[in-house]
Amino acid sequence: AYVTVAHLFFRDVATNAPALPFLPDWLYNRVFPQKRDQGLTALGREVVEAMVDEGILIDITHMRSQSIRDVFGLLDERDPAKEIPVIATHMAYRFGGLEYCFDDDTIRAVAERGGVLGCILCQHYITSGLPGNAKSFQDSVGALCRHIDKIHELTGTVENIGIGSDLDGYIKPALPGLQHMGLMAELEQELRSRYGGVDAEKICSGNALR
After folding, report:
1. 161: Cβ–Cβ under 8 A, 6 or more apart, which residues?
2. What is the pLDDT of residues 152-161, one digit of tens each?
3. How many other CB atoms are found less than 10 A from the CB of residue 167?
4. What letters, b where the CB count within 10 A reaches 16 and e where it falls short, cover 49-79?
5. Partners of 116 in the β-ladder
6. Per residue in 80-138, pLDDT tens?
7. pTM above 0.90, yes or no
8. DSSP character for 85?
9. Distance CA 90, CA 63 (A)
10. Could you tell me the CA-to-CA distances from 162 to 21, 56, 99 in Å, in that order?
11. With 0-12 CB in 10 A as exposed, 13-18 as middle and 19+ as buried, what is 169?
12. Which of 62, 52, 119 is nearest to 86 (CA)?
């Protein structure tokens, strides 16, 4: 099992990054203010400690940077050997300035713990910082692969990359050609042609199953 500890709005557990595609970050932060230096609250630390005790995976998706740092700091105290994995079920690399998307340090920290980074299929996050919006299936795959390739560049492996679609979540509009699960077979075929069968299998399912 896993728990997404922060999600959309602050609930006195962990501060969250703006994640409403129709609201720019500055407006979200004005409407839903959070303390700048706060990450995990006392309750949030208890939650993460309990998840470690019970063998429940920590999903750092939606967390603000300070909350993410707090999670890894707590884990490093409990598990200096870095045997406990951390996951991000639906994320993107920060090519643009969106706080929701992950920076280099966060991606490396997840990889160091053998976790998985699931690339979201939301146009808002996947195309942020890249030229133009995706208008076709091929555009969508190209933009998605920019994130896959960046994670590979930072970690030196495909062992920590997954597809974390968030389909039926708050990701409207989804990437063209990837709006529902019936289109995932076409995505898998594209990934096989780009990365080969072995690596594509890891990205599509193997890493998450591991």
Report:
1. 116, 117, 119, 148, 151, 152, 202, 203, 207
2. 999 999 999 9
3. 17
4. eebbeeeebbbbbbbbebbbbbbbebbeeee
5. 87
6. 999 999 999 999 999 999 999 999 999 999 999 999 999 999 999 999 999 988 899 99
7. yes
8. -
9. 12
10. 22, 19, 20
11. middle
12. 52
| Residue 45, φ and ψ in degrees, nearest 5 | -65, -40
Q: Around Cβ 185, how many Cβ atoms within 10 Å?
A: 10
Give the DSSP letter of residue 59.
E
Is residue 208 scored above 80 in pLDDT?
A: yes
In what side-by-side order are the strands of the sheet with 161-163?
2-4, 57-59, 86-91, 116-119, 161-163
- Rounded CA Rg of the chain: 17
DSSP state of 183: G
Assign 3-state DSSP to the chain and report helix, strand, coil percentages, each to 5.
Answer: 45, 15, 40
Residue 192 is encoded by which pair of tokens?
Answer: 């096989």
Residue 21 has pLDDT above 90, yes or no: no
The number of beta carbons lying within 10 Å of the beta carbon of residue 157 is 13
Place of tokens 């490093």: 76
Distance CA 198, CA 201 (A): 5
Question: Does residue 86 contact residue 60 with C-beta atoms inside 8 Å?
Answer: yes
